[in-house]
Amino acid sequence: MNSGRSIPGVYRAAGALTVNGYSEKWLRQGFPWVYPNEVTAGQARPGDVVRLVTAGGVVLGTALADDGWIAARRFRDDEGPLDAAFIRARVEAAWELRRGALPPDTTAWRLVNAENDDLPGIRIDVWGTQVVITLDAAALSPLLDPLADAVEAILSPRAILLAWRPDPREKERPTPPPRVLRGAPQAEERVTERGVAFLVRPGAGKDVGLFPDMRDNRAWLEPHWQGRTLLNLFAHTGAFSVSAAKQGAETVTVDLSQPYLDRAAANFAENGLPSGELLAEDSFKALDRFRRQGRRFDRVLLDPPGHSHSKDGTWSGEQDYGRLVSAALRVLPPGGWLIAASNLGSVTPHRFQGMLLAGARKAGRPLRMLHDGSQPLDFPAALQFPEGRFLKFVVCAA
Asked: How many domains does the chain divide into?
């Protein structure tokens, strides 16, 4: 794999990939990916800059080639170079969208949201004084130097780290280790979200410890916590529980992972809040126990992972969500709120609402939508890239 090269001042395509008519149609509509079965001629190594052309030789753009489930990621729709000036301009455009628009006292946010900011396969997250560049594939590594240069010019962080976001469809493909690109990182960083403090680990990849894409949804719920009880399932490091407790809620925080709950306890302590009940337990088992005990909660929050495996079984966000809704409604009194989220890009908002409806019908409890939330401004969703609207967040009265 030829993925360790830096891009010179001008880096133009050395070869071409010819795409079929189906790919041409989508590329002309702004879609940034080319799949392997859409390439009809041409060869390239991962990390090579290539022109994308029609069978008649019409140029459709400049891309980085790959050898996984994506054959090429298009960065521009002309023959221009993928040089440092181009990358800097893309990162600065993303910064201009966010500058001055983030909530006050917020130091955890996303600078670049991959395809939705016209930098496919690349995410750049800010964690206080540190920045993490996350790549979907090693084929994107040639862009690391200009990306880091742009970040330094805009933000002057303490450190820039590299992380990876391997696709589950490529389990056999080796993932490079995370590493420090520049500066001197610290293992733990205190960040804030609208004044609420969280302890995060920027170098821990997907286990950083906070999901800023939920920021606006936590903010919407703030006026509705006072005097309420919250059951937070699949709670991770407890961000929703901490936010609710800060607004006067009594919380029960459930996650299968004791280490995550330990981090949740630290987040409560960082804000000077009581931690409530922290239960290291399977969420389905907790729901069944609460049902048998006759215990009820004013608010039940469901934010499960897309997929997971444990000794208690396998969870699929596409197959099992209705069953989870049904179980949750059995511990929710009339008038209580079901708060349900999914981050699966393969599940459309319409389909997600269908999952909620199926669970409600199974439980014999009608639901009324009170709020339909999504991603904050720093997680834009490009209309030409349907996968960009990954987050669904629905609040319903039961």
From this structure: 3
